[in-house]
Structures are given as C-alpha cells and as structure tokens.
User: Fold MFS family permease from Neomicrococcus aestuarii.
Amino acid sequence: MSAPSSAPSQQTGLKRIVSASMAGTVVEWYDFFLYASAAALVFGTQFFPQTGNALDGVIAAFVTYAVGFVARPLGGIIFGHIGDRLGRKFTLQLTIVMIGVATVLMGCLPTINQIGYWAPALLVFLRFVQGMALGGEWGGAVLLVAEHSPNESRGFWASWPQAAVPLGNLLATVVLFVMRSVLDNAAFLAWGWRVAFWLSAVVVVVGYIIRKHVQDAPIFEEAKAEVEQTKAISYGVGEVIKKYPRGILTAMGLRFAENILYYIVVSFSIVYLGSLKVDTAAILGLLAIAHVFHFIFVPIVGYFSDKVGRRPLYIAGAILGGTWGFFAFPMFNTKDNFIIVLAIIIGLAFHALMYAGQPSIMAEMFPTRMRYSGVSLGYQVTSIVAGSLAPIIATTILKETGGYMGVNIYLLIASVVTLIAALSLRETKGASLHEIDAEERASRERAVPTV
Assistant:
C-alpha cells in the first residue's frame, strides 16, 4: 500500500525520515514494554516480599510499572520544551540514550533476597528515568514525520512511528519467549530475563546511529527562526497551556480509552491467562503473533484516515473498544490458543482505529512553535490516569472479585469518555500545517493593541 506524494524524491525522503523515527521508537518501546512483561512474569517474585498470594507481588510490580507513566508527563514537559527550542532530532538522540542506559542497568540489579529493599527502590528509580525519556520520545518521533509529510497523506506517514510501538513490544515479547522456552523456570528467574534487558544496549546503538542522519523539517526551522527574531512570542508548555487549553483537553480525552484498552489487552491479559494456568511461554507466543497483526493494522488505518477522515475512525474505535472485554474474556476462558490469540488480535484492531490517527490529529491541533509541547502534554499526562493504572485496577478487580465483569465495566466507562472527545473533534483531514501557523500568527497579531 502506498500513499500519494507530490514527488518521488519527496517520498524517498519521507521513507528515510520514517525509518529513522521508527528505528529509535522501536528501541524505546522495546525497553518500556520489556518492563511490562517482566512485571507480570518476574518482578513480583524477585523484587518484592512474598505474602502468600501471587497476585500481591504482581500488583506491587505493576505499581512500579506505573511509575514510568507518572514520569512521562514530566519528560513530555522537559523534552517538549527542548524540542520546541532546539529541535526534534536533538531531543530524540538524547532520549534514546537515556532509556537505553536505564534498561541495561535494570538487567544488572540484585534481587530483594540479595540487597533487601534497595532492590525495589533502585528498580523504581530506573523506571522513572525510563518514563521521562519515553515522555519526550513520542512527540519528537511522530512530529519528525508529520512535519515532513504532505497534507494529503499525513495520516498514513505519521502512523508509521505508531506502528513501531507494537514492533517494539513484539521484540520484547519474542526475546522473553525465547529465553522462557529454552530455560527452565529456575534459570529464567535467576538470569534468563536479564538477557533481554542487556540486549537493549545493541539496539540503542543502532537506533542512535540511524537518527544521526535525519534533519528537522523546514516548517520547524521557519518557526524557530520566527521565535528568535520576534521576542514578543514564545514556545513551550506555558505558552501552549495558555493558548490551546481545549486542544490539550481534547487530546487527553482521545487518549483515555485507547491507552486503557491497550494495557488491558497486552499486560493484564498475561495476568488473567496466568490465573487460568495457561502456560507462560504459550501466552508470550500468542502475544507475539498478535503484535505482528497490530503492526499491520496501524498503517492501514492511517491510510484510510486520509481517505475517510480522522474522526469517523476514532469514533468507531471508541465504541468497539468498549465492547471488547464482554466477549474477549469468555474467549480466554476456553483456553484454546487459537481463540485466545483471536481475542487479542481483535482488541488490537479496535485499538488501532484510535491509535493510528493520533499523530496527525494532534499535530494538526497546534502551531509549530508549540506543537512538541502540545502533543506531549495531551498524550503523556493522560497516561498517569489511564495506562499506568489499568493493569493495577484490572488485577485488583480480579483479585477481589475473582472475575472479569468489573474490568469490562471499567473499560466501557473509559470508552464513553473517549467517545465524547471524538465526537467533539474537528475533522482535520488534509489540513495544512503552514495554514495552521498562519492562522495562529493572524490571531496573535489581532490580539496586539494598536497605538
């Protein structure tokens, strides 16, 4: 599948930009999701005291997992400001190094039996660093592509960095699956899981080198020059909150159910299937298959967002996402691998309807001089109350009730919130980023009192 382009050379350049953006994004999400899988499989027993109930350790591990989400808005604020001032490329090089170092060090941590409570304390600190880096990564990666893309195909091209997310998750899942399959349980818990964290060093170096050879978009350079020449205008978090509060709130609403759905499908599913005594290696293998489908779904949805619009696809995703748990958990209960993976694939297809269009939608909400800060705030702040809490809430519901109906209601309520945001969304298919900047400039000039 291809998207229209104004010239072959432009399309070649776009492919290079997309490749560079995806290379680093795969690395960063590999590291981030590796923690999620390890939290469900390893950290509960290796880094937290045992209470006699296995789910208590998992919940404690998911709480540290949530620390990364809490850190993400801080990273979005800090790196959004840096990205709007110094450029998307510089910020992306910095964040990839940060998250890689933190992940490798996680693989070196002693367990609670070796150093006591220093083990979870150090784990939390490194998770915080991971979260900060990822908070700055997403905005830069998607904007690097979105700002280079033609107006008529921005949805397609900007969806590719989103597709890097399931690719990073796939890589993390495959590495853990291989280690879990070739090692017995004792060896896997003792050292096997650590190999996946150490491998981050290799992929970080590759991603960093690839990103060195890209440049910021001309529209960013123009906006940067305007800010430098016109001292009366500014950029960054404070400016975007003051000028575009509705855009930030809309972006947060759009993100809410999408984020919750994803982490229930890919993280809580591991816990739920484990409670059914489904083999761990089998669960990881099924998730790996589902991530491949998700990787395929995202650019397809991105392509159609340029044809039928961002809004109708997002509305469909919000409605369908709210129904997923009602049929997915009964499918899990069959313990049939084919039916289980089908349920996960359907969940990720619903998720893609919302996720694929986010870069283009959010990029088209803000002018260039404050776009990095705007998209980072809208995207990352929501993760504190959405994705970070979703596995904790779902696992707690399972522990307290022994069932999944409460999880279904939780997901349904989240979907209503996102549906309201999607219905309020202004269709921006084909919008010109230059015109958005011009409108903002005209509005600013009208607000200046004449003497």
Notes: Confidence is low (pLDDT under 50) at residues 1-8.
